[in-house]
Amino acid sequence: MTKEQRLDTLRIACLFMTYPMPLQPWAISNVQAHEANGHQVDVYALRGRQPDHAETVRRYRLDLPAVAHPSRETAAAIASPRNWGMALYVLGLILRHLWRRPEELAKSVILLPRVVEICARLRDDPPDVVHAFWGHYPSMVLLAGARFFPSVHRSLFLGNYDLLPRPFGLSGRAAAIADSIWTATEANLPLIASLGVSTDRVTIAHWGVPLDLADQAPVDRVPGRICTASNFQKEKNIDLVIRAFALVAAERPEASLVIAGDGAERQALEALTATLGLVDRVTFTGLLTRERLFSELRQAEVFLFLSTKATERLPNAVMEAMLAEAFCIVSRTDDIEKLIIDNSTGQVVDQLAPEAVAPVVISALDDPQRAACGRRASDLVRNKFSVNAMMGVYTSGWQRGQKQRRAGDR
C-alpha cells in the first residue's frame, strides 16, 4: 500500500445505540458500504446485544468483535483509576445539562460505564474518525473526545430520529464541537438550526441502498401482485394498505398482497386480514434477508407505502422498491418528491383512505406505462441513491477534514 493509499484509507469508529438492528437495515448497509469502499469500520454499540442479535448477524453475514458490545470489560474500564477523570468529566456534562430532563439524565447515567469504556479505547488506540451514527446518546462520546482524544475527527449525524419529537439535551453541545455535521435530507435543516447550529456547517448526504441487490437473477412479475414492507407500527398504516387491498381484491380476482416485515402490530394486522376474508390472498412474510425482500419486490407490480410517521424521510423501502422497478404508490412525506415524481417514477397519494387509495392501485395495475415508470425509478436510484456513493460523500468530507488539520498543524 502506497503512502497516498494509506492517507485515503480511513479507520472509522462508528457509534450506535445497538447494532445490528433487524428493523434498521440502512444502518447495516451504511457500515458495509464504508467497508466495500476500502475503509475499516470499528462498530461500538452503547447497549447490549438484542434478543434477535444472532439471527440478524447471520442474516446479514456480519463479523462483530466482542468490543462491539458491552461486556465485563465495561465495568473494568470505569473502575480503572486511569479513566476516573474521563468518567467525572462526562458525568459533569450529564448532570449540568440534563438535570431538567430526568428521563434522559437517568439513561445517560446508566450508559456512562459503556461511554467511558468506548472513550478509553479511542483514547488508547485513536482511529481517524469517530462518527456518531445517531446524534443523541452516542454524542456523549464526541463530547469526551474533544478533551481526551482531540486529534480524532469528530463526526455527528443529526437525523429525523435525533430531532423529533425533540433533540437530546446534549445534541446541540455535541454539534458545537463536531468537526463535521451530517443529515440525510433538507427537511431536517430547520430542526438542526433550532439547536443553534449554522446550517452552513451541515452536509446533506442522502442515505441510499445497495445497488448490488439488482445483480440477482431476474424473476417474473406476478400479475396483480402488490407488496408493502415496513416496521409494523401504527403510524406506518399497514392496516390502511390491507383495507385498500380489500377494495382492489373485490375488482381484481388475480390480485394478491405480500406484507414484508414485523413488529408490534402484527397480531392486529393478521386479525384484520382474517376479518376481511383475505387470508388466502395476503401473505405475511416476517423479516426477510435483504436478497429475499428484493426478490419479493421484483415480483410485485405495485409497491404500496402509506406511512404518516413524523420521522419518515426518503424511505429506504421505497428506494429498494424503485430499484426493483415496481410501480411505487406512496404517502406524502417530507422530501418524498426527490424520489417519486408523479407519472414519471411513481405516484404520491394525498387522500389516505381506502376508497381513495384503491382506485390509484387499480389504475397502476392497468397502466401500460407501468413498466417504463419502473425503469425510470430504478435509473433514478442508481444515479442518485447508491449507498456506496453516499458513504463516499462522508469519507471524502472526513478526508478533507484530515488534510486541513494536517495543514494547520504544519
What does this structure look like?
The protein is of the alpha/beta class. The protein has 2 domains: 3-208 and 387-409, 3-Layer(aba) Sandwich (Rossmann fold), CATH 3.40.50.2000; 211-384, Glycogen Phosphorylase B (Rossmann fold). The protein has helices spanning 3-8, 25-36, 53-60, 72-79, 84-98, 102-124, 139-148, 160-163, 171-177, 189-193, 238-251, 266-275, 290-299, 316-323, 354-366, 370-384, 387-409, and strands at residues 11-16, 40-45, 129-132, 153-157, 180-183, 202-204, 225-231, 256-262, 282-286, 302-305, 327-331, 347-349. The longest helix has 23 residues, at 102-124. The protein is elongated. The protein starts with a helix and ends with a helix.
Set out the fold topology.
Layout: H1 3-8, E1 11-16, H2 25-36, E2 40-45, H3 53-60, H4 72-79, H5 84-98, H6 102-124, E3 129-132, H7 139-148, E4 153-157, H8 160-163, H9 171-177, E5 180-183, H10 189-193, E6 202-204, E7 225-231, H11 238-251, E8 256-262, H12 266-275, E9 282-286, H13 290-299, E10 302-305, H14 316-323, E11 327-331, E12 347-349, H15 354-366, H16 370-384, H17 387-409
Parallel strand pairs: 1-2, 1-3, 3-4, 4-5, 5-6, 7-8, 7-10, 8-9, 10-11, 11-12
Helix pairs in contact: 2-17, 4-6, 5-6, 6-7, 7-9, 11-15, 14-16
Quick structural summary:
With 410 residues, the chain is of the alpha/beta class. It has helices at 3-8, 25-36, 53-60, 72-79, 84-98, 102-124, 139-148, 160-163, 171-177, 189-193, 238-251, 266-275, 290-299, 316-323, 354-366, 370-384, 387-409; strands at residues 11-16, 40-45, 129-132, 153-157, 180-183, 202-204, 225-231, 256-262, 282-286, 302-305, 327-331, 347-349. It is elongated, with a radius of gyration of 23 Å.
